[in-house]
Amino acid sequence: MSDTSNDIWEHGVFVKLIGNKNIIKIVDFLAGNSPGSYSKSEICTFLGMGRSNVYKVWPLLEEFNIIKSTRSCGRFRFYTLNKDSPIVRNLIKLKILTEVQ
Questions:
Q1: How far apart are CA 89 and CA 19, in angstroms?
Q2: How many domains does the chain have?
Q3: Mean pLDDT of residues grouped by 10 in the chain (101 residues)?
């Protein structure tokens, strides 16, 4: 297991990631709209979420490499789901498995 995977289990981050509806909404949106990249503002608009809700969870998304920055345009930075991340790959598998049921 990688250090990131161990950190998830040892520090309760798994519950923070999976148990947070805002993180799940963002991951689900980016997974469903891949390979597109979106700014935080666009994500707020598409999901009908307040900026504060997105900004609260963003550090966890970055810390565990769930998202990655693809480009910048002026003061905007655009993000996509980091499909190279083992966490993301497993979340996508879980999503597929739950949709099959």
A1: 18
A2: 1
A3: 52 71 91 90 95 94 92 92 90 80 63
